[in-house]
Design goal:
6 helices; 194 residues; transmembrane; Rer1; Protein RER1; transmembrane helix; single chain; mainly alpha
Length: 194
Amino acid sequence: MEGIGGDGASVASPLPQLGHNAWRMYQYYLDKSTPHSTYRWIGTLVVVAIYCLRVYYVQGFYIVSYGLGIYLLNLLIGFLSPLVDPELEGSDGPVLPTKGSDEFKPFIRRLPEFKFWYTMTKAFCIAFLMTFFSVFDVPVFWPILLCYWGVLFVLTMRRQIGHMIKYKYIPFSFGKQKYTGKKASAGSSGSRGD
């Protein structure tokens, strides 16, 4: 009896092992793409273009696009929000600067850029796959969905931008001061006595 169970386990083991090896290879290339943000975003734009062409030529799946838009709006809010919300957090611990005299504190996102990119790309891929199943092609009047999403976007972003202005934080890295190391003063000897 033990021989039968052992043979079945050895026959079934190559399939999970193959799946595990494929997952490890996927993780390897995903990790290698981490420092190349420009190429990652170009790849995402290609995926978005393929999805848009698919929806345009099929002339349907507007409810999938609406759901995708709501999900992307949620991701955008997480990307633009700080990890520590000054309105909800007490005065203990570091907070975002609210006065000009406050020291510089780096902006730490609630949703980091890599996770934002990864979940956004994955969402477009899943939405693209959903367009191959007719059960998701619900007949709706798409201009109403577009108007509703536009109103939702404006209201949400107005609140988010108001929050950014109130607490003086910029969620993007361009236009910010960067630490480049200590500047050598003219009167110092240049060597340390460590």
